[in-house]
Design brief:
CATH architecture of chain A: Orthogonal Bundle
CATH superfamily of chain B: MetI-like
Structural class of chain B: mainly alpha
Shape of chain B: globular
Largest sheet of chain B: none
Oligomer: heterodimer
Number of strands of chain B: 0
Helix content of chain A: over 70%
Radius of gyration of chain B: 23 Å
CATH topology of chain B: MetI-like fold
Mean pLDDT of chain A: 88
Low-confidence stretches of chain B: none
Order of helices and strands of chain A: HHHHHHHHHHHH
Shape of chain A: globular
Number of domains of chain A: 1
Low-confidence stretches of chain A: none
Structural class of chain A: mainly alpha
Number of strands of chain A: 0
Strand content of chain B: under 5%
Largest interface: A-B, 95 and 100 residues
CATH superfamily of chain A: MetI-like
Number of helices of chain B: 14
Number of helices of chain A: 12
Number of domains of chain B: 1
CATH class of chain B: Mainly Alpha
CATH topology of chain A: MetI-like fold
CATH class of chain A: Mainly Alpha
Helix content of chain B: over 70%
CATH architecture of chain B: Orthogonal Bundle
Distance between the termini of chain A: 25 Å
Largest sheet of chain A: none
Chain lengths: 276, 270
């Protein structure tokens, strides 16, 4: 009964993966009709020497680190607050979780609209209190993208952490309370350690997903100003689609895969070790 | 006293979070009913709703794009549900395929799409099915199938083995026992997996942008097409955004609780 899965996986994942490896070893270009030549490791050497590629890797990792840190902190706070919420409980949760189900391009375009310096409401409101801030300007655009990510994906953290909090057994908490432990002490010494397995899974899942950031860049900055917001997915897209250099783009994708592989292995071991 | 302060801080935090979440959505909804000149005034809150933007995006084929997205998502999800539920069952019950299969399923879910998209594009060109929905369905299967399978492993794990054993004693074949006894136990999980898989396919833009850029553009690609920023198109873009957002956000309300168990492969339960 494993056969349907294996069959579809070979067609949809296995074969394309092998083909991508082949592409990465050729000088294949989409616009050239005719055969592609085998060039060995040339694309990989080229990508390794490409400053733009490493710049994009750096930008992406900065983006992921900032986004995941903020989302974890905010997510933990909101999950703790929601756990104690009694009034309109399910409705509050459902509304707070909504952003993670929206297509990212819609989120990107919405914020481009909201932040637009003539028509957007946010600059308008800031102007009302005498402030002016160029959200997509030099040195600021990447952080603006991070905040868009935070808007959309903090709910994901809330969802997982809330589930983690609610699956924590009640006895140790009650025992500590009977012994007169303070709320902060219970949080730090009991709740938090018991939450670590869920927390680490949530952080890994979110990081792996944030690495794929593309839509926000496509909707707002297109990599600018300069190359400040060129993320790896956007850079590969440009190399492959706008410059038609599929071989090179594939080699970049494989280097990226190699870089994220340790995270995938870590996630796998975490999920296996989690208590059932 | 301290407790009271704490409670009001908690309320304030949740209120701020709610406003931050709802504000952009409300704003886009308002904008979709504004005329171009009303859009020039961001502070305008009360006005006579105008349906021109909505008629315009329908005229520009937004419903066709939505239909294409729904077609791709439906086919992807049906294949994923069949292949995913059978596989998840044997993986959960018989540890079929071992760790390698489990790892493969997890890795495929988080694989950067940049790795697979160029082979799909090249193969689509070589077989002359480029700019059609077929390569897109394969591309979406590459991440929806592993997610659905992973999702279901967690749900099969919580079905007691004795159910199946009893059915086998009663003379059911292994497949019949699966189909008639075990599978119905995970229907809620299967339903959540199907809705979640549909959402993933419906929301994907990266594969769509590269594999179906023009003639058969899917919804996310087509709403990006309103991103011209001549001012005039802002209202239309807002309407188009809502066409993409509203169905999945409503569907998501029904699966939020099941989602955690599914995403973590049964490791975390609500």
């Amino acid at each position: 009964m494993l056969i349907p899965l294996l069959a579809v996986s070979v067609v949809a994942v296995g074969f394309p993966l092998v083909y991508a490896l082949y592409l990465s070893l050729t000088d294949f270009k989409l616009i050239q009709k005719g055969t592609a030549n085998f060039v060995g490791a040339e694309n990989y050497i080229g990508s390794f020497a490409d400053d733009g590629f490493w710049g994009a890797i750096g930008t992406t990792f900065t983006y992921v680190a900032l986004a995941v840190i903020i989302e974890t902190a905010l997510g933990l706070l909101i999950a703790l607050a929601l756990q104690k919420q009694k009034w309109a409980r399910d409705l509050t949760r459902a509304m707070l979780l909504a952003p993670m189900f929206i297509t990212p391009i819609a989120v990107g375009l919405t914020f481009r609209f909201l932040l637009n310096d003539q028509l957007g409401i946010i600059p308008y409101l800031l102007d009302g209190v005498g402030l002016s801030y160029d959200f997509l300007g030099s040195g600021r655009a990447l952080f603006t993208l991070v905040m868009i990510d935070v808007w959309q994906w903090t709910p994901f953290m809330v969802l997982l952490l809330l589930a983690g909090l609610e699956s924590i057994p009640k006895q140790p908490l009650e025992a500590a309370r009977v012994d007169g432990a303070s709320g902060w002490y219970i949080l730090r010494r009991i709740t938090f350690p018991l939450l670590v397995p869920v927390l680490s899974v949530a952080i890994l899942l979110r990081s792996l997903d944030a690495l794929k950031v593309f839509e926000y860049v496509y909707a707002t900055t297109r990599g600018g100003p300069g190359t400040q917001t060129e993320t790896i997915q956007y850079f590969t897209y440009q190399t492959g689609i706008q410059f038609f250099r599929l071989g090179e783009a594939s080699s970049m994708a494989f280097i990226l895969l190699l870089l994220v592989l340790p995270l995938i292995v870590l996630l796998f071991r975490r999920l296996k070790r989690s208590p059932r | 006293m301290k407790k009271k302060l704490f409670n009001s801080l908690r309320g304030l935090l949740l209120l701020t979070a709610l406003v931050s979440v709802l504000f952009p959505l409300v704003w886009v909804t308002l904008a979709s009913f504004k005329t171009p000149s009303q859009l020039n005034d961001p502070s305008l809150l009360f006005f006579d709703p105008n349906f021109e933007n909505w008629l315009y995006v329908i005229d520009r084929g937004i419903l066709d794009a939505a239909l294409r997205s729904a077609t791709v998502a439906t086919i992807t999800v049906i294949i994923s549900a069949i292949a995913g539920s059978t596989a998840a069952y044997v993986i959960s019950t018989y540890k079929a395929g071992g760790n390698a299969t489990r790892f493969g399923i997890l890795a495929a879910q988080v694989l950067p799409p940049a790795v697979l998209v160029f082979p799909f594009l090249t193969l689509a060109y070589l077989t002359r099915v480029n700019d059609s929905l077929l390569p897109l369905i394969f591309a979406h299967l590459s991440f929806v199938l592993p997610v659905v399978t992973w999702f279901l492993i967690g749900f099969f794990d919580s079905v007691p083995r004795s159910l199946e054993e009893q059915a086998r004693v009663d003379g059911f074949t292994r497949f019949k026992a699966f189909l008639l006894v075990v599978l119905p136990q995970v229907y809620p999980g299967l339903g959540a997996a199907v809705i979640f898989g549909f959402t993933l396919s419906w929301n994907d833009m990266f594969y769509g942008l590269i594999l179906t850029p023009s003639r058969s553009a899917i919804l996310p690609v087509s709403i990006a097409g309103f991103n011209t920023f001549r001012g005039v198109e802002l209202g239309a873009m807002s309407a188009a955004i809502l066409v993409a957002v509203v169905p999945v956000v409503i569907a998501s309300f029904f699966i939020q609780r099941k989602l955690v168990q599914g995403i973590s492969g049964g490791a975390v339960k609500f």
